[in-house]
Description:
Blueprint: H1 17-39, H2 45-50, E1 53-54, E2 57-58, H3 61-83, H4 86-106, H5 114-136, H6 145-149
Antiparallel strand pairs: 1-2
Amino acid sequence: MRTRQPTTMLDEQPIPVRAKLAAAWTSLMFLYAYVDILNFFTPGVVQEILDGRVFEFDLSQTFSTSALALMAVPSFMVVLSMTLPARMNRLANLVVASLFVPVTVFNLVGESWLFFYGLGIVLELILLAVILRYAWTWPSTAPSATAATSPGRGAVRPAAPVS
C-alpha cells in the first residue's frame, strides 16, 4: 500500500509589468539579431554586401548610422521599461511598439526566402503584440494609506484612471 506523499507547490511570484516589458524588448532584439545573422547564409547576400549593397540600399555611413539608430530603439526600451515612471512607461511602450510594427513588416518586402523571413517577422510581431498587450493592460492602483504617510514622500495625488 502506497501512501500519497505531500506535494510541494512552487511559489509563483508575480512578475512586474516593467520586467515583462524589458524581457519582451530583449527577446525582440535577439530575434532581430538572429534573423540578420542567419541572413548571411542566404545565397548571394554576402556578395551583395561585398559589392556595397543591402537590399535596395547602397552601403554608406548614412545607411549604417540609420540602421544603428533604428536598432538602438529596442535597446533603450529595455532600460526605459525598467526606469520610466509608470504612466510615461506605458505610453512609451504603446507608441514605440506600434511604430515598430510597420518597420518589422517592411523587412519582408522583396525577400525571396519567405518561409525564413516570414517566420522571423511573425515571431517579431508576436513579441510586439505582447509588448502592446502588457502596456495596454498595465494595472492601475489607488494610492494606499501607507504610501501617503510614508516618511520622505511628498503628497500623493489620487491616480487618474488609465484608459
